[in-house]
Design brief:
The complex is a heterodimer of chains A (390) and B (392).
Chain A (H helix, E strand, L loop, with lengths): L1 E7 L5 H12 L3 E6 L12 E4 L6 H15 L3 H12 L2 H16 L3 E4 L18 E6 L2 H4 L1 H4 L1 H11 L4 E4 L2 H4 L13 E3 L22 E6 L8 H13 L4 E6 L5 H9 L6 E4 L4 H10 L2 E4 L8 H8 L4 E4 L4 H4 L7 E3 L4 H13 L2 H18 L2 H17 L1
Chain B lengths: L1 E5 L9 H12 L3 E6 L10 E4 L7 H15 L3 H13 L4 H10 L1 H4 L5 E4 L2 H4 L5 H4 L3 E6 L1 H10 L5 H6 L2 E4 L2 H9 L7 E4 L6 H6 L11 E6 L8 H13 L4 E6 L4 H13 L6 E5 L3 H10 L2 E4 L8 H8 L3 E5 L4 H4 L7 E3 L4 H12 L3 H18 L2 H13 L1
Parallel strand pairs in B: 1-2, 1-4, 2-3, 4-5, 5-6, 6-7, 8-9, 8-11, 9-10, 11-12, 12-13
Classes of the chains: A alpha/beta (390), B alpha/beta (392).
Protein name (chain A): Glycosyl transferase family 1 domain-containing protein
Organism (chain A): Psychroflexus lacisalsi
InterPro entries (chain B): Glyco_trans_1
Chain lengths: 390, 392
């Protein structure tokens, strides 16, 4: 089976990289196509094919003419020259995509973001390959609900897809709020991670003199750090000794303002993005992870935290309740509710060590069973096979 | 007096503060020059000079630098003074070359005052006024003091050393600046924004606030500092009390902020109640304002807030968070109402309480608000204050 991953860029996410490596190990052929030229971190045995860079005009011309000479002489070459004279970048990129799809001959084109479906307009319902879309991220769970024009575009393409991959049960049916139900394979495949490589912290949590809390994630409004910061303000008012670290929160003006405004400079520290190993190290040593987001598929940082033995207090956003059952594998609070988050942190502090240990063990078991890499690859192979038979 | 005003870009027609300031200074016999970053926009009220453009292409940048430096030869005395001042401050040779380039337009000027419209505009230009024999004045806006500084600690240390006079749009910002290292011995003055009553009179204002729904309005950019999430949560509380209302928000934001608030409204099921109208002209804004019953400001901080002042000028009942300088803008329980910052449920309670007041009480507040704006925030007063700012 030859699978093309269409991400728009060669810089694919960690989740896609793990999927690609898994597919290669399974003996599948994988290509990645995107609108860039340079790939600083390629995965071995993967073919990276540029569709013409958006950054460099010179490289764009070189790639376009190269593709036309290799696969489309003479017609495509003359067409490419014409588009270049006209300065019609988009038409040329479309031609590049056409040449690539015809010559790489994939069985499945796995599209990572809904906006990329526009490029595949001429190929829906073609006889040569199937088109699958991954449902994840803001293009699925936010933009369609605030932009009528985007919802219309989605509805136009969803009915012509061959299959859907959904990162959670919640997101798998989300589209039904704006589009009528479509009868195509729609498989929930949880993101997989190498759980066995993550050593679980066996020491008893919440025994540090000062409660150490942590959040991990880029600074973006969906992460709703203000709610966590306000919860910290309540903790401070109650005289609780704590420290909260937001990895990835440094430089965010809103977060900085709130910390300053609420007088929490000595209680909250922010860092810029740090290497994955350092993130694991910090999460491993924290007492509890906070996930205050207003929207998520299923947050990988929570999966990793649970694997590392650090329990998670999460909001009930997106698919998080598929990962955490309240009081079983962690704790769930409503979104945008700093008071509820504050109360849950205090409840956590009042639990005895044995109760917390039970939660961390069940959390580890849950991610081992639901988020292991082998399961993700197997499930994705199953989706591809189902779609090809469909 | 020759006054050079430095801004990031020419003020648009709706930016009344700088436009009325320039008009007022000219009317009082001062000569005003506006200096902004390189732009295609023109300016109609006074001479407009631009800073040299900074190019990404190194060859283009080098050529531009050559041209600019040749143009500076005739001003060697000032440039030489600037070099000496910067050398004293320990500026490296490379940085000095860059600074001469970005300040070339200012170094050519003859002026009594260089007034930086925002504190951030003065960064890397602090010694220029002294080099050309002018005095340095600076104005604060909320962002300079409340936000920029958090990311750039000590960014104003050189400005504090070189500033001759400070203008603040509120006592709140001035006090904050003192806390942040501005010496209290530096001459400073608070000159509040003003209201253009002639413009208000020209607009066809509606006094028809009737309708089945209770009407609320907020004028604010869609930006986190304006507390739009709190606005939506306040609306949620109102809805939970079965109040039939419509809350319009005038102002635009970048894509991220617009999506953020549209999504919050969607999730809170408030699409019928909270309406994001986007950017409207000043006249359209005033028309909307005239139709509203209560004006609300949920900002987490404000340097002063013209919108609240304008709402009071129109006699609207104003409710605002007690944040930043809003307590100087609204006299609590006299010309409007203040509610504790960051507490949407308390703001919702206050809105309900104000709604339920008698018409007589509401009218009293409204009249006091109009009177105070007329008495204390007129363009004439502002023009006089600014004229005196440079001469006393």
């Amino acid at each position: 089976m030859h699978i093309i991953i269409f991400d728009g860029s060669f810089k694919t996410t960690a989740f896609i990289n793990r999927l690609i490596m898994g597919l290669i190990i399974q003996g599948q052929k994988v290509s990645v196509i995107g609108f860039n030229e340079i790939n600083s971190n390629p995965i071995p045995m993967v073919k990276y094919q540029s569709l013409g860079s958006n950054q460099s005009k010179l490289k764009f011309i070189k790639t376009s003419l190269g593709l036309a000479v290799r696969w489309g002489l003479p017609k495509s070459f003359f067409q490419a020259m014409l588009f270049l004279v006209q300065g019609n970048r988009k038409a040329l990129q479309k031609q590049n995509l056409d040449l690539v799809l015809k010559n790489l001959q994939p069985d499945v084109v796995h599209v990572q973001w809904p906006t990329l479906l526009l490029w595949l307009e001429p190929y829906f319902n073609n006889l040569n390959f199937k088109i699958i879309l991954s449902q994840r991220g803001s293009q699925n769970n936010i933009t369609p609900f605030v932009s009528k024009s985007f919802a219309k575009i989605l509805s136009n393409y969803y009915h012509r897809l061959d299959g859907l991959h959904s990162v959670s049960k919640a997101i798998s049916v989300r589209y039904q709020k704006i589009i009528s139900i479509i009868d195509i394979p729609n498989h929930v495949i949880y993101s997989g991670t190498s759980i066995s490589s993550l050593k679980m912290n066996q020491t008893l949590k919440h025994k540090s003199e000062k409660l150490q809390m942590i959040s991990v994630g880029r600074s973006h409004w969906v992460k709703d750090y203000p709610t966590a910061i306000k919860a910290c303000s309540y903790l401070k008012q109650k005289g609780i000794d704590f420290h909260y670290t937001i990895i990835g929160g440094q430089g965010d003006e809103e977060v900085l303002f709130l910390i300053h405004d609420l007088g929490l400079e000595n209680h909250i520290s922010l860092t810029y993005k740090i290497p994955q190993e350092e993130v694991f190290e910090k999460v491993y040593h924290a007492d509890v992870m906070l996930l205050p987001s207003v929207e998520e598929g299923i947050a990988n940082v929570a999966v990793e935290s649970m694997a590392l033995g650090t329990p998670v207090i999460s909001t009930n956003c997106g698919g998080m309740e598929e990962l955490i059952t309240h009081n079983k594998e962690g704790w769930i609070v409503p979104i945008r509710d700093s008071e509820a988050l504050n109360m849950q942190i205090i409840k956590f502090m009042n639990l005895d060590a044995e109760q917390i240990k039970n939660i961390t063990i069940k959390a580890r078991q849950k991610v081992e069973q639901q988020h292991n890499e082998e399961k993700m690859i197997k499930d994705m192979m199953n989706l591809y096979a189902t779609v090809l038979k469909y | 007096m020759k006054i050079t005003l430095v801004l990031s870009q020419p003020p648009g027609y709706s930016e009344t503060f700088f436009r009325s300031k320039i008009k007022g200074l000219k009317a009082n016999g001062h000569q005003v020059v506006l200096v902004t970053a390189a732009t295609n926009k023109s300016f109609d009220l006074c001479a407009h000079i631009q800073h040299p453009r900074v190019y990404k292409n190194p060859i283009r940048q080098l050529l531009s630098m050559l041209l600019v430096f040749v143009g500076l030869l005739a001003y060697w005395t000032k440039v030489n003074r600037y070099i000496n001042l910067e050398r004293k401050e320990g500026t490296s040779f490379k940085r000095l070359i860059e600074k001469i380039y970005i300040n070339a337009s200012l170094l050519k000027l003859n002026a009594n005052w260089i007034h930086f419209g925002f504190a951030t505009m003065a960064i890397d230009r602090e010694t220029v006024p002294k080099a050309i024999g002018a005095k340095l004045a600076v104005s604060f806006r909320g962002y300079d003091i409340e936000v920029f500084l958090l990311k750039n600690r000590d960014c104003y240390q050189r400005l504090w050393m070189h500033v001759d006079k400070v203008h603040s749009i509120s006592n709140y910002l001035l006090e904050k600046a003192f806390d942040l290292g501005l010496s209290k011995s530096v001459d400073s003055e608070v000159i509040y924004p003003a209201i253009d009553f002639d413009f208000i009179k020209k607009i066809q204002l509606s006094s028809d606030t009737l309708g089945t729904k209770f009407k609320l309005l907020t004028i604010a950019r869609l930006h986190w500092i304006k507390g739009i999430d709190d606005l939506i949560e306040t609306a949620q509380h109102l809805k939970s009390k079965q109040i039939d209302f419509e809350w319009k928000v005038i102002g635009e934001g970048d894509q991220k902020h617009t999506e953020r608030y549209a999504y919050h409204i969607y999730k809170a099921d408030l699409q019928e109640q909270v309406l994001l109208l986007g950017k409207l002209s000043h006249a359209e804004t005033l028309e909307e304002l005239s139709k509203t019953e209560i004006y609300v400001q949920t900002s987490l901080s404000e340097g002063f807030c013209n919108a609240v002042l304008e709402a009071q000028a129109l006699g609207k009942l104003c409710l605002a968070y007690d944040a930043g300088a809003l307590s100087e803008n609204i006299q609590n329980n006299t010309t409007g109402f203040l509610s504790p910052k960051g507490q949407p449920h308390l703001l919702a309670q206050k809105i309900i309480e104000v709604m339920q007041r008698s018409n007589h009480e509401k009218e009293q507040i409204s009249q006091k608000a109009i009177q105070r704006v007329h008495d204390d925030f007129s363009l004439e007063q502002q023009a006089k204050s600014f004229s005196e700012f440079y001469t006393t």
